[in-house]
Design a protein that fits this description.
Number of domains: 2
Structural class: alpha+beta
Distance between the termini: 105 Å
């Protein structure tokens, strides 16, 4: 009697299983077959002496933020990770020709990836919305994508014509290189999905694997080289500074009687202080290295201060009414007239006047005026009566403006030429 009851129960259970199996889809049957005894915490290889090899490729989607002041770099990246789980294989013909299917990534074994240079919190790579695809031969493809917020050391030596290099390191803290290795077959990163950024140009992106930390973990190293778009800073800062420098040197072209020389010089000096603050708000506060633009701004402040001091001296010269010292007279005659007289005396004769250029005609006119002034004096030997403080002031202005202008043009061309070519001063 007991044997008959047992046989009946087995028959009923078998029939129920067959009926239930008939109602299941091929995917459900395949899932139950593969994961009934599957343990996601165990290695996906049958030979535990062999490391797990993970084919890795990377691509960059967008550059979201780059805060040079705080060294914060935010970028959207994705990795394609391919490995083989020898426990998850099946024959497609036995399951309706099913070649692959998708599953949540937390149902299978996967490498635990973490971001090394996380900016404000520890960040794991991948989330629940990113599924894994399993193929019949056990191949698993996982494409985790994240918005990575990392620390990037900024070198602003050549600001605003600088280039920056940032690294994104993703490592497996749990596995050593003897247990898991990343295989990088192509070092170039796919940039076909990269969206343009208004502040930075992406020069190159490369990926490589390297050892991390003392425990010899394998890691994925993503290297990004960025070039700053400098158009905004050229229009907003550099061009106004250059024009201010030119306006500042024009102080010596203003008539001393106008009384506006010092006002213009002081205004230009204060303008350079304002532009230095603007530069400081866009450049990290770092003493090593120091942006070369700071050196140029320091030069402009010294340059403007020198113009202000020399302008005050010039006004003091114009304001004097005593007799000009003999040594000053000789210096002014040499600087203002001596070369002019020698130039005109070298002319062949008066018949060649028509062949003179406009500059030579002006030189000859100045010399004749000088000779007429001497002849008009009662005592031609008294040169101090010819050279007055007004002439001294004009000569002083001419040479100060010329020397400072040459220094300004030379240092400006040298600075921005070096900056643009990314070479040291």
């Amino acid at each position: 009697m007991k044997i008959e009851v047992t046989f009946f129960v087995v028959v009923v259970a078998t029939v129920a299983f067959v009926v239930d199996s008939a109602n299941l889809t091929h995917s459900e049957i395949l899932y139950e077959t593969l994961f009934t005894k599957y343990n996601k915490y165990l290695y996906p290889v049958l030979n535990l002496d062999e490391p797990i090899l993970i084919d890795t490729t990377a691509f960059v989607v967008s550059i979201n933020k780059f805060d040079e002041i705080n060294g914060e770099f935010e970028v959207t990246c994705a990795f394609t990770l391919i490995w083989k789980d020898e426990r998850l294989t099946w024959t497609p013909t036995e399951y309706g020709g099913k070649q692959s299917f998708l599953l949540p990534h937390d149902l299978v074994w996967r490498p635990l990836l973490s971001l090394m240079q996380s900016y404000d919190h520890f960040q794991m790579v991948g989330n629940a919305s990113q599924l894994v695809r399993i193929y019949s031969n056990g191949t698993i493809v996982w494409v985790p994508a994240n918005v990575f917020k990392v620390i990037c050391s900024v070198d602003v030596t050549y600001f605003p014509f600088d280039s920056q290099t940032c690294h994104i390191n993703v490592s497996t803290w749990s596995f050593t290189k003897d247990e898991l290795r990343f295989v990088i077959r192509h070092t170039d990163v796919d940039l076909s999905l990269l969206s343009s950024n208004s502040q930075w140009n992406v020069i190159s992106v490369s990926v490589s694997n390297s050892s991390c930390c003392r425990m010899n973990y394998d890691s994925i190293n993503l290297k990004m080289v960025l070039d700053r778009r400098s158009d905004f800073f050229v229009v907003y800062i550099i061009i106004p500074i250059l024009f201010l420098g030119l306006i500042n040197i024009c102080v010596f072209l203003m008539p001393a009687s106008s009384g506006e020389r010092n006002s213009v010089a002081i205004t230009a000096f204060l303008s350079f202080v304002v532009f230095m603050e603007m530069v400081n708000s866009n450049v990290p506060e770092s003493s090593s290295p120091l942006a070369y633009l700071y050196y140029y701004m320091l030069f402009m402040l010294v340059y403007s201060s020198a113009i202000l001091i020399l302008s005050i001296v010039s006004l003091r010269i114009y304001d004097r009414d005593n007799t000009v010292p003999t040594n000053v007279v000789k210096a002014i005659k040499y600087l203002r007239f001596w070369k002019l007289k020698c130039t005109c005396r070298a002319k062949p004769n008066n018949n060649a006047v028509t062949d003179l250029t406009n500059d030579e005609k002006e030189i000859e006119k100045d010399v004749k005026d000088f000779e007429n002034d001497i002849e008009a004096k009662a005592d031609p030997s008294d040169e101090s009566e010819v050279i007055n403080w007004k002439i001294v002031g004009k000569t002083y202005d001419k040479y100060c403006g010329f020397i400072l202008g040459v220094v300004y043009i030379f240092f400006t061309a040298l600075t921005f030429g070096r900056l643009y070519s990314n070479q040291g001063l």
